[in-house]
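Hi everyone, sorry if this is the wrong subforum. Our group has a chain we'd like a structural model of before ordering constructs, and none of us has done structure prediction before. Sequence below.
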Amino acid sequence: MLSKLRNLHRYFYQVPWCVPTWGWKEFCVTMNCILTGHLSKGPYPRRFADAVKDYLGIAYALHTNRGRVAIELALRAIGLDKNHDVILPSYICHSVLDAVVRVGARPVFADVGPDLHLTPETVKTALTAQTRCVIVPHLFGNTAPIDEIETMLEGTGIALIDDAAQSFGSRRAGRLVGTFGDCGIISCGPGKTLAGVAGGLLVTNNREIYERAATISLCQENAIVVMQRVLSFWIWRRLRKYTLPFKIIMDRVFGVKEETPYVACVMSNLDARIALEQFYALGKNTQKRRYNATILLKALGPLANYNISDLSHNSTLVKLVLVLPPKEPTPNQVINLLSNAGIECQKGYVPLHLYMRNVSVFLPFTDNLWDRVVCIPVDIEYKGIKKPLPFTEKRPKFESSQV
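Answer:
Right subforum, don't worry. Here is the predicted structure as tokens:
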């Protein structure tokens, strides 16, 4: 019985998808906030905002409960309305689009380059006479050529939002992402470099943008909601190897519920306290991920030929991203292989323009690449794949090729 209990962890994902790796410090600060009752209100949101502001060398930082809320505040502070267009990549999570839609602006989808990021050329192609803002996200710990986009937009009157939600701590042209353009966005959600549960920041050197954003009314989250959200990450989300199939079955039986619209709130004290611990460990965790990424790539064998992630010191390497060839192997084959090895992977984003009715746009790179992307989380606790992957045991059937 004792041996079975000791080996229980083997039956679950060694590296679950978008579940933060928290240690003793995160456990202690969580219990401290619960026992003292400082779950919702407390001093840590301001402390966290000040710490990030000093790290980036930015004048102002405003904390929110979500990264998408920070984007919404930025768009409202810039002064966007229904008469303005906002350029964003179609290859991005829907959170960015949610913020644009909430302020009433018109989203204009731009294509991406081979590394799945916006480029100056794709932004230029998407510009309209009504363009007032461009949102440039950095994906998976990598960076977009935002320095080049910033140069291109100089003197146009078009605002630039530097969305560093997925790549906080990464550098581009010698500068930390989040410091480009008119303002930057930081997120502390799952799968980010500051791997908490929730929370976001709007950072800027523009006093007018900060003051406008600061006047927008934000509510305070309920303490019970905050505690339930954090405890879910401590407990059931780590059992995703079994809870995920169960959830899919339940969704099919009872119908998939629409996601509850988010409410714009300030950051909770507990979320900020956990994010602060992640911030203190940012350098150490980034080094671990870079090292573990090299081990993982070796285990992938020939599949490593399709990696597009930046392995340099400029990247924070939240995920390894493979863009597979048009034929074999398929994304599902790779995902199943890694699932059996204890790593929960997912396909890349479904482009936003495919979701929206009455939107007809030709995005050649996005349309060609999106269904061949596999994202592999790079966990700081990754110990290596114990059994060789089938593709590494013998010469694979597929051949290496350029994307």
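For your construct planning: The chain has two domains: 24-214, 282-392. Residues 282-300 form the longest helix (19 residues).
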